[in-house]
């Protein structure tokens, strides 16, 4: 099979009307491992924004039931990806996600920022570590897909281009990254979970933590008060990821069948299957007291 068969296929699809199919091909066949890592780090960096990290800590979900909260987040998003936004399963997944978000006082700005991490971080990861970077056509489809996700979530003033998303992410982090012990506790719990995923569960925890920190920018490390890795550590781990990309490109056969998150060994909370309607939390009221921020409206049924 042609190593670039999927790229050739995405080139033939329309980036606006067929963006779901393009993102599905990229996420489940072309780059399943890379995009999983990139989205995990995308979510991780949001904890460094205190208004997000503190909320996640106060709910008790990410630091007390880290595995389940990780699984629920991934499975809800994966249901939308696998079945499509307009499918019954996709609509149920959006409804479940909007119900959870609607129970808390989350600002539209925070929602837009989190959305921007899901747009920008996979593009940047693949440009640096992937066996190939996304094409401009694929980037446009990626943006269109997450713009549609944002609309289904009721997020307002969504950026229209990748460059606008990238600027939003960088500016928001420069203005809002800050240390808070509660956000750090959520980050610590997430890093601890990372050490249990195969194959990293076979490595010493200190090495796994060092590997994760070697991929973080100084501003993110400072927001969690994590020690900065040495230049040598950064170089070694980043070169290892780049070498993996070369190995995938030149030594591995292209994936013929899609790999969805529900099929991966790090999703462990539902060995007998799951119903998307039962995923996540069911809070009656927001347990966190906030100021007067504008909350992104929950659209209920998209």
Helix content range: 55-70%
Mean pLDDT: 92
Give the terminus-to-terminus CA distance. 39 Å
How large is the share of residues in beta strands?
under 5%
- Helix count equals 14
Largest sheet: none
**Alpha-beta content class:** mainly alpha
In the predicted model, the low-confidence regions spanning at least 5 consecutive residues are 286-302
**Run of helices and strands:** HHHHHHHHHHHHHH
Radius of gyration: 19 Å
What is the tally of beta strands?
Answer: 0
Question: What does this 3D model show about the protein?
Answer:
The chain has 14 helices and no strands. With 302 residues, the chain is mostly helical. Helix 4 packs across helix 11 (181-194). The chain is globular, with a radius of gyration of 19 Å.
Descriptive labels:
302 residues, mainly alpha, globular, disordered C terminus
Quick take:
The chain has 302 residues and is mostly helical.
Topology:
Layout: H1 5-12, H2 19-30, H3 32-45, H4 50-59, H5 61-64, H6 66-83, H7 88-102, H8 108-129, H9 136-152, H10 162-176, H11 181-194, H12 205-214, H13 218-224, H14 231-251
Helix pairs in contact: 1-2, 2-3, 2-9, 3-8, 4-11, 6-7, 8-9, 8-10, 12-14
């Amino acid at each position: 099979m042609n190593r670039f068969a999927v790229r050739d296929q995405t080139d033939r699809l329309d980036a606006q009307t067929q963006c779901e199919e393009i993102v599905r091909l990229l996420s489940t066949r072309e780059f399943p491992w890379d995009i999983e890592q990139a989205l995990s780090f995308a979510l991780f960096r949001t904890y460094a924004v205190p208004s997000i990290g503190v909320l996640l800590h106060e709910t008790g979900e990410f630091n007390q039931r880290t595995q389940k909260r990780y699984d629920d987040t991934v499975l809800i998003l994966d249901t939308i990806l696998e079945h499509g936004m307009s499918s019954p399963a996709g609509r149920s997944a959006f409804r479940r996600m909007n119900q959870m978000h609607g129970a808390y006082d989350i600002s539209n700005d925070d929602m837009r920022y989190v959305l921007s991490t899901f747009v920008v971080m996979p593009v940047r990861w693949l440009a640096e570590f992937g066996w190939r970077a996304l094409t401009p056509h694929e980037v446009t489809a990626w943006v269109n897909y997450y713009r549609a996700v944002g609309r289904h979530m009721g997020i307002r003033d969504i950026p229209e281009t990748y460059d606008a998303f990238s600027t939003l992410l960088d500016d928001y982090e420069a203005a809002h990254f800050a240390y808070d012990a509660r956000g750090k506790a959520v980050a610590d719990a997430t890093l601890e979970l990372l050490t249990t995923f195969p194959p990293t569960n076979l490595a010493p925890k200190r090495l796994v933590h060092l590997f994760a920190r070697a991929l973080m920018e100084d501003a993110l490390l400072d927001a969690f008060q994590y020690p900065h890795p040495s230049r040598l550590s950064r170089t070694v781990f980043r070169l290892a990821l780049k070498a993996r990309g070369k190995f995938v490109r030149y030594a591995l056969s292209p994936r013929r069948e899609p790999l969805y998150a529900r099929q991966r060994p790090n999703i462990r909370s539902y060995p007998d299957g799951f119903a998307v309607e039962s995923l996540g939390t069911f809070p009656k009221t927001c347990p966190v007291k906030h100021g007067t921020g504008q909350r992104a409206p929950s659209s209920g049924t998209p």
